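Q: What would this chain look like folded?
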Amino acid sequence: MELIKQLMENKVDESLHKMFVRFSNGVFEDRFLLKIKKSKDRLDVKGSYDVWQELFNIIVKESNEVNVVGRLFKSRKKEDYEGNVNCDEIKRIVSENDFALLDITAGDYLLKCKKALPKPGKSLNVKFCSAKLPLSALDVLAFDFKDKTFKQAEIKHTVIVEDIILPEEEEDPVLLRVKSKRKGKIIRKIILDGNETVKEFEFIA
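A: My prediction, written as structure tokens:
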């Protein structure tokens, strides 16, 4: 997953930082969940809430226009959204909102998700979103797999937040929370056709 690769390489952008705003200090198991079933000509993917952005990025990168149906969240307000839109525009819309839960269709690409945010601190559901993607998406989803000949893969992460770094000279409590960075480590577990590999790395986001 590109987001995990960015964390490993300490290349955190604003969209990735936003994904960690909801984390407090503590241990959060089963995050960034993915299940991948590989057939001869496509991938059937299921994922948790926190991988929606990853799947969205894969689709808009390879498309010019997408059909969108779903919901946007900003400043505790919800707004339904629907229509055909070019990819630059939908990327802008998603980046300008706090959260986006959208179904996306473009050619052979399909992404669907639930339309309510999970409660902070609760266990995540690997069936929160689902996607049908071409085999080429493995270059992103399975970037560190030594063997991509698997039939089924499962990826899960434990996020351990050890410290919250507050921004200097910021007094607004809302902005303090939004701008604060989380520091800790992530344990990445990959299961390929029943064979398990575990990796661990530090992060700041």
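Residues 2-204 form one domain.
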